[in-house]
Amino acid sequence: MRVSIASDHAGFEQKQRLAQYLRDEGADVIDLGPTTDDRVDYPDFARAVAENVAAGDSRFGVLVCGTGIGMAMAANKVPGIRAANIMDIRFAELTRQHNDANVVTLSGRFVTFEDNCRIVNAFLNTPFEGGRHAGRIQKISDLEK
Ligand code: RB5
Questions:
Q1: What spacing in Å lies between the alpha carbon of 131 and ligand 1's midpoint?
Q2: Which letter does DSSP use for residue 31 in this model?
Q3: Cβ within 8 Å of residue 107, ≥6 positions away
Q4: pLDDT averaged over the chain?
Q5: Whose CA is nearest to atom 7 of ligand 1?
Q6: Is the pTM of this model over 0.85?
Q7: For the chain, which residues make up each domain, given as ranges?
Q8: By alpha-carbon position, which residue is closest to atom 5 of ligand 1?
Q9: Given this model, what pLDDT does residue 82 score?
Q10: 72: CA distance to ligand 1 center in Å?
């Protein structure tokens, strides 16, 4: 499975570790930066991952900033992206089952690396349930028109 990942400076350390974790789990990881923990603007990196996922170049995206909130706001501006800011494993499962989220945004400052690994693992391995949820996803897509 191909996964693109990026962060800002606040999420940099966890982004580096999560990229390695995903590679160790067998994912094909596209690291879209940054390459240092120098201060950067999170929308630039949200855009890179969101456009990569929207283009079909990766199946899922992972974004890490201080809270994950700004990354979600920015990524959700890209058509075709359903980004969810997740701090809880059950929510990771639910946003896949019900929302067919394709980008997960994480907190590098307030959630441990170990918990973020569990969240990402749940996110990547939980299928969309479809059924009654499919029409709702279509209505989200309709908002982009
Ligand atoms: C950077 O200080 C911080 O604002 C950013 O990482 C993120 O938390 C924004 O939502």
A1: 36
A2: E
A3: 11, 64, 65, 66, 67, 68, 85, 87, 116
A4: 98
A5: 66
A6: yes
A7: 2-142
A8: 66
A9: 98
A10: 11
